[in-house]
Amino acid sequence: MKYAPELYAEAFIQALDESAGHASRDALVASLLAVIEKNGDNARKVKILNAVRRAFIKKRGGREITIETARVQQHIDLGRYFTKEDEIETRVNPDLVAGLRITIDGERELDTSLHRKLSRMFQ
Amino acid sequence: MNYDIIEKLKKEIEGFKDDPRFEDVGSVVEAGDGIAKISGLRKALSQELLSIETHAGEVFAVAFNLEENFIGAVILGDASSVRVGDRVKRSGRVLSIRIGNEVIGRVVSPLGAPLDAKGVLFEREDRAEEYMLERKAPSVVERESVKTPLHTGVKSIDAMIPIGRGQRELIIGDRQTGKTAIAIDTILNQKQEKGKDRPVCIYVAIGQKDSKIAKIVKVFEEAGALEYTVVVSASASSSASLQYLAPYAGCAIGEYFMDQGRDALVIYDDLSKHADAYRELSLLLRRPPGREAYPGDIFYLHSRLLERAAKLNRENGGGSLTALPIIETKLGDVAAYIPTNVISITDGQIYLESSLFYQGIRPAINVGLSVSRVGSSAQTKAMKKVAGRLRLELAQFRELQAFVQFASDLDEATKKRVDRGALLTEILKQRDREPVSFEQAVVVLYSALNGYVDDIPLEKAKQFETHLVDYLEKRYRAEILDEIQKTGDLSERVEARLKEVIGEAKGIF
């Protein structure tokens, strides 16, 4: 491990900004992948690409929102709580039993699941 | 089904209020060897207790390394159940232990869990107080000088290397030289102290074999010493994190009693293993290794622990915490890294030597290298009066002993001095788990130093000592021994009477 994923992401975004108009986006992505391989960080490729994705969302002023529900939901209307810059991902997590859990940027969470209530009740 | 239980549960369910709100969360990105690397939780505090939600339940960890993007945490529970991706939450609490009077007589883990199958620690939770494992040592203004003796029951220590309440005295020596035996004797000897004077003893076992800890607990139990002793156990089978925390837990227990105005004695057995456990954690956390691969803050690790030993002034309750750390040396090398660190932190050391041990001099204390920097002001007047010459006589004896091996004929004065030295060495020998009260030590040393035992053959010296103590205990307890114990002094009247009694005892020996 030569560099942290966040450093790769930061460097990639800066390179993209500085090369506006000169090099194509696809060429830069290819270069990033080549650098990852050259540094022997191939095993962490997914982590690095996730860090790049997070850096993009942050750059445009958005947040990474993960909404977990216990069962498949046809429609969750939470649009008024988020902006169009936010990236929303929905997941099904049967461990929650019922209710939902919202995580923002992987660092803040609102847990209204029945799993949490039950574990608090029997704590 | 039990109607009461159902009713109770129903009430709990009805009364349950949940108020979900946003909270900080992180996730495990790496786990192994009892260490977890956690992303997120940017606001976590150093030493904060973190809760990891694993598939097997909640596991606690302590935030050790606060880095730019990650937290290096030491897992306190079942490390094998922690997996990458597990959610981690802050607890908002730093590591602490619940302490109350009921902890006396129990064997507990460094996290305060009972290990002796004697049931719950506290019958009522309100009787226990939360004490932080890491706490600031009392400041200069809160302290006063060490002036009350803490008798160990070991004649040579009480006479030449006296320990005061609130002092830090290191016990250092190779393996199998009797370091733990001195510590155990000191605890057993506290039984002779009455009422409030008797300190609460805390024995902290770090990286010791479980069988050895069980044996020590049995010794305490059989001697009735468990009535005033707490054992904190982090045996060799415990994780490095628990071994690292054990002395801090023992210290916190001692502080609880010190804050109540009582005296406490804490024994760290031993800090060499503690340093090894900390080295293990530090290397796993990828902290840079220094000398002997110990991390850079290894001195601070022990200094912040031992600084917490103190004698508080009257305004702060007047309690005290005496610390007896133990260090194991390798081949008598006191100049190694950890021994020199702890020697420089403590207020003196009791140095035990293998060669003395194998010569049959037990406790194998090297009187020349052992020292107590503050204890002499805490020594009782009686002991000071009697033992003042002891160290000097023994030093002269050691010096002459080397020459005597080669000299064929000696002048009378030298011979006398050598004989006296040999006699004193014999008198200072003592068996394990047979602590001698200070008043008994005073009369024995008085008789030996004033030449009353000179005409008794060396091989019968120990026998005479036992005879003299027995004679005094049976016939002159109140007149002589109780008087010395009460006043702490050897008055002219008592001294004159003692001279007569020694003569009497010799007459019937």
General description of the model:
The complex is a heterodimer of chains A (123) and B (509). Chain A has helices at 5-18, 25-38, 45-59, 114-121; strands spanning 64-69, 87-92, 100-104, 108-111. Chain A is α+β, with helices and mostly antiparallel strands and 123 residues long. A four-stranded mixed beta sheet of chain A has the order 2-1-3-4. In chain A, a hairpin with a 3-residue loop joins strand 3 (100-104) and strand 4 (108-111). In chain A, helix 1 crosses helix 3 (45-59). Chain A is elongated and about 55 Å long. With 509 residues, chain B is α/β, with parallel strands linked by helices. The N and C termini of chain B lie far apart (77 Å). Chain B is built from 16 helices and 17 strands. In chain B, the strands form three sheets. In chain B, strands 8, 10, 11, 12, 13, 14, 15, 16 and 17 form a nine-stranded mixed beta sheet that branches. A six-stranded antiparallel barrel of chain B has the order 1-2-5-4-3-6. In chain B, strands 7-9 form a two-stranded antiparallel sheet. Chain A binds chain B through residues 4, 6, 103-104, 106-112, 116-117, 120-121, and chain B through 12-13, 16, 18, 20-27, 39-42, 69, 87. Strand 4 of chain A pairs antiparallel with strand 1 of chain B, so a sheet runs across the interface.
